[in-house]
Write a structure and sequence with these properties.
CATH architecture: 3-Layer(aba) Sandwich
Structural class: alpha/beta
CATH superfamily: Vaccinia Virus protein VP39
Largest sheet: 8 strands, mixed
Number of domains: 1
Number of helices: 9
Number of strands: 11
Shape: globular
Strand order of the largest sheet: 6-5-4-7-8-10-9-11
CATH topology: Rossmann fold
Helix content: 25-40%
């Protein structure tokens, strides 16, 4: 069941599903990213292109559409597509957390597998996977075959951003990384130090691209963040997250 809960900020709400917080939305300030992992995703958006420059973004998973709102606010005229199969949450958001007028955000009531397969080649500068069911990204969205479909939809310099949840020794993330390597030459990972050290589970942000990624720029953002985190370059990803066997259909 989807529920909205007010916060201490005026016109800001937390959207929850079966007791799990999914999104924080501030209707007055869409650039306010309350959840640390969403702030890390916002950092990726900010380093991929010049501030204010429009991006073509596809989001797999929508919920309250916090990140699409952020892109629309910081990069006006960006063309965005959100693939959200749960029509109940989309109706709730439209009624209670309406998107700004002329936001450029289009919501399609399809699952990620179907929606990505229908996209044309080179459609997106950035594809974001932030879809969860029972606390996990659906397995069919993490296969080597689906990753190849994602790569097809990206521009040559485009990037694939995945929000995973895992804990040391990161068996799940290792398998995802192995599948990504078949389609993307460059990888980076961002996570809280406590998660990387195995002290607790947490969000693991994986960034993949066919062209070199802006790792140093992302590291600067990470060091300046209200909740600092580490960014691992390709060599460190190989050292810490190598050895996995890809998920396949």
């Amino acid at each position: 069941m989807w529920e909205l809960q007010p916060t201490e900020r005026a016109r800001a709400f937390v959207l929850s599903h079966d007791g799990r917080a999914q999104s924080h939305v501030d209707l007055d300030d869409p650039t306010y990213l309350a959840f640390d992992y969403v702030r890390r995703m916002g950092d990726v958006v900010d380093v991929l292109a010049t501030p204010g420059e429009p991006l073509r973004v596809v989001h797999v998973g929508g919920a309250g559409m916090t990140l699409p709102r952020y892109v629309a606010a910081t990069r006006p005229t960006s063309a965005q597509v959100v693939l959200e199969p749960d029509e109940a949450v989309t109706e709730l958001v439209r009624a209670e957390l309406p998107l700004p007028r002329r936001s450029g955000i289009k919501v399609r009531p399809v699952d990620g597998l179907t929606g990505v397969a229908a996209l044309p080649d080179g459609r997106a500068d950035l594809l974001v996977l932030d879809a969860y069911a029972d606390g996990r990204v659906p397995a069919e969205l993490l296969t080597r075959e689906h990753t190849a479909e994602v790569a097809r939809t990206l521009t040559r310099g485009g990037a694939y951003l995945l929000n995973l949840s895992d804990r040391a020794p990161f068996a799940h993330t290792r398998r995802v990384v192995a599948g990504l390597r078949a389609s993307f030459a460059h990888l980076a990972i961002g996570a809280e130090p406590a998660t990387l050290r195995g002290r607790r589970d947490g969000n693991v942000m994986v960034l993949a691209g066919r062209e070199p990624l802006p790792v140093e720029a992302l590291r600067r953002r990470a060091s300046e963040s209200p909740a600092p985190y580490r960014v691992l370059d390709a060599d460190l990803v190989s050292d810490s997250f190598g050895g996995g066997v890809p998920f396949t259909r």
